[in-house]
Design a protein that fits this description.
mainly beta; 2 helices; globular; 160 residues
Length: 160
């Protein structure tokens, strides 16, 4: 858990939560937004919302239960957009997983990912998004037990 997730392949939005600078990992597969307990501990105590224990215990993508500390309402600033949102705090490697509760099911409808321009449109505001790639032009997708490689330049699907 000591990795800085923003250096690994993925999509990231630079911003802050409760005044602490973070890299939000864009994760539409996460149903809820989750803050790292490491980042929570770094928030000055006078700015740190008190956690409410209980609620649903978040799970990792592999189904493993995460060590859940509780939830609280935080101010999330994504670029120029700031919003207040209930966020779970758990032991995760990323600073913050930005989940579907913000990206898909927000009060203003789903966000638009415009990756060709490096933007996320959320609530009518353009937010810069950083793309960190494993290898230029290649995206690996797991399909059940078969591994496939989608080559972006040729737009062909070839087995690995």
């Amino acid at each position: 858990m000591l990795r800085r997730a923003a250096h690994y392949p993925g999509l990231y939005i630079d911003g802050s939560i409760a005044g602490a600078g973070v890299a939000f990992t864009v994760d539409t597969g996460a149903t809820h937004t989750i803050l790292s307990s490491r980042v929570y501990d770094q928030i000055p105590e006078r700015q740190r919302p008190k956690l409410i224990p209980g609620g649903s215990c978040p799970s990792a993508a592999d189904g493993r239960r995460l060590d859940h500390w509780g939830s609280a309402v935080f101010e999330l600033c994504l670029g120029k957009l700031c919003l207040r949102k209930k966020v779970a705090v758990a032991d995760i490697a990323d600073d913050v997983l930005l989940g579907a509760d913000v990206l898909v099911y927000g009060p203003h409808g789903p966000a638009d990912l415009i990756l060709s321009e490096g933007l996320v449109q959320l609530q009518g505001i353009s937010i810069p998004v950083r793309q960190v790639n494993a290898a230029p032009g290649t995206l690996r997708v797991r399909r059940q037990t078969t591994m496939w490689c989608l080559e972006w330049q040729r737009w062909s699907l070839t087995p690995m």
